[in-house]
Design brief:
The chain is 46% helix and 22% strand. By secondary structure, it is an alpha+beta fold. It has 7 domains: 1-39; 40-140, 2-Layer Sandwich (Beta-Lactamase), CATH 3.30.450.20; 172-267, Beta-Lactamase; 274-402, PAS domain (Beta-Lactamase); 421-522, Beta-Lactamase, CATH 3.30.450; 536-591; 615-766, Heat Shock Protein 90. This is histidine kinase.
Length: 768
Amino acid sequence: MLALVLAVGLAAFFTGWRWRRQAAEQHGVTGRLELLMAGSPAVPMVVRADGRLEMPTRLAQWLGLDGPVDDLAELVADDGALEPGDAAALRDAVVAGQKAARPFRLPIRALGAKRALFAVGERAPDGLNAPGGVLVWFFDASEMQEEIAQLVGETQELRDAFDSLTGLIEAAPLPMWYRGADLRLAMVNSAYVRAVDADKAADVVRQQIELVEDSGLGGPLANAAIARDTDEPQVSAMPATIGGARRMLRIHDVPLPDGGVAGVAVDIEDLEQARGGLKRFGEAQRAMLDRLSAGVAQFGADRALRFCNQPFQRMFSMRPEWIADRPEFDRVLERMREAKRLPEVRDFPSWKAEHREWFQAAGAEIEESWHLPGGVHLRVVGQPLPEGGLLLIFEDRTEQVQLASARDTLLRVRTATFDNLFEALGVFAADGRLQLWNNKFRLIWDFEEEMLATHPRVDALAEAGAPKLKNPDRGKLIGALVRSATVDRQQRGGRVEFADGRHFEFTAVPLPDGNALFTMLDITDSRMMEQALRDRNEALEAADRVKTAFVANMSYELRTPLTSIKGFAEMLHGGYAGELTESGTGYTEAILESVGRLGSLIDDVLDLTEGEEKPLPVERVDLELTAGAAAGAVANMVNERGVELVVDVQGSAGSVKGDQRRLREAVEHLLRHSVNSLSEGGRVLLHVDGDEEKARIIVSDDGPGMDSRTAERAFDQFAQVGIMPDGQRALGLDLPLAKRFVEAHGGTIGLVSEPGEGALITIELPRG
């Protein structure tokens, strides 16, 4: 039993000793943990399921409390230790952690404290003996918060800069891209996408669509690889097809620190074309300068001759091989002097130094006149160039000087001519002012020389000269004519009578320079002659009317005895006075024939003397029947003279409106005229045709014809009748009568004839 008690006691002793040693070890661990907690940057807080808190004094100090609090409600109260927003966020996070074991991270700021805390919460471990509770670690993030704020600001600045750079690259009109270290496309801008006719940048990157096609020499990747490997930017010119057009691009490959390569494409097609155009312009300009008559020489900033055209070489006798050495300005002047193409000067070195200063005469007007030996005149114009050179232009004005001298002579001759002309002359400017005048102009209007010297306007001259006219209102016509010539550029004229009986004819003529020439010609004598001729014409017309009336009366008077002669002759021929002998019968037949011819002649004279105002009867006239009747009327005459008459009436002849008898007589007169002009065996053609508007009658023969003078007088009713000295038949009344009848119907008649070629007479009659 004792042994049992001893054994139990020893076991209890060893167990207590072990527990004591474990407690001592645990106490040491706890102390070390407390030391670690005191130096830890984080302070724990346990929130039990019922809201009770376990917090160290250090956390209470961080939160600005006098000491630890026991309840969560007290900590997150509105007047508690935390900012209202942070308190509500912590309360909600703790509740979510208690109910759903949801971890949380919250920034916490104590009320009125500058310290910034960061709370990290999770469900409390089982070892804390706080079932349903939440363990919250608080970190002092004051310094970290400042660094974070600084980093956030820097990050925002970098982000803004990156966004701006990205927006700039995206908005750039130039294709831009980025390649990674493997030289594959990683980013392109919108200009690149448009240039390769793609829809989106992602498609370009995915399909690796290159802007420049591979030309067999490494393509667009060759320079990019060189830039990446050498860390040196590379520039190259490559062709590309953009928008269906071939363009030349300047590719810039720039290495980046990350091993990638940035690329930019600049379209230099226009620049290349501009360079080519500039080169062609320079060549064309030099070719044009070679065709100028003026000499052109260009010196560089070093005063060496860079260019001179062919006229310059000819003007100063300079050989091309000498010019090829690009001589200096001084040598060129000396060469000009040797060729005697410089003015004679007393001090040539000073003169040369003075002209050497033209290179520095920026903005100054340089112009000289050189009078060279032999009467040559040169106009020299100098222009300093912006790059320091000098451009000289040599214009040979010898001809202009000679022309100016000749012009002065011509002006003096013109003035002398003006003053001695029979006409009065005045030249008015476009504004109506008198510019030039001669003595005749001044004397006609009796103007004072002092008044004309003021170059008055035409209205003032017309007003001053109006009292000298018979009708003063006619003075306004002068101003109107001058304005018509200067403004409307129309030539007009008129006549004016002076109060003293003089008559003048005036004309306003537009001149090529915009001025107007006003001329006045004295027509007093011609006016008097015109009046005398007018009076004589009236007298002749009165005499002609008397003669016509006399002929008409005589014709009527002759009809009475002619009728009696015809009646008695017919009675004798009919045997009323007894049977006549054979010779008596012949005599009576001759009397009757002569009476018939005389009666026809009297009828013709009466037709000519009848008034033109006498109206004609209007009826439908068939031209085929009319032509047949006219041909039948001259049938006996045709047979007696042994000629041939051919009548050709076309179906288009139709009819016209008029006097059937007069039209038949018109055709009959033309046939008689043609038959009378023919000898035996001759031929006459009567042709009739027409169209919708008019009918045409043609009478032609193969007779002797007539000369131009006779043809001009063919239709003159007073033409000579009889036989001409050269044997040709003279004109009778047939053609004048035919013309009278045709014109009475509104038609026309024409004659075409040449000696030995017969005659052709054409009548055209309107259908209406």
